[in-house]
What we know:
Strand content: under 5%
Structural class: mainly alpha
Shape: elongated
Number of helices: 3
Number of strands: 0
Largest sheet: none
Helix content: over 70%
Amino acid sequence: METSDKDRKYYKAKDKVEAIKKFYTSLMSYVFFIAFLAGLNYWVNEWSYPWFLWAAFGWGIGLIFHAIKVFSLNPFFGRDWEERKIKEYMEEDEKQNRWK
């Protein structure tokens, strides 16, 4: 029984590390490509219209949501919100079934 608990914790931690790794890969891609687009924008029209900011803004929003998911930064529900709610509802259901 103890081994399966250790295995579960190991795989959960491994999945978390993979998600963080993917986030940092996405972040590096963002920095590289936005810098490239900014350079291209400067070369084409010397900042008369900074169109690369549209791409930076759109991709940046996606990157922010990715960070919220990976680092559990959800300000509305907090950490382990789902697990707490599941336990709460299970306890509530158990109490109701005792009285029946």
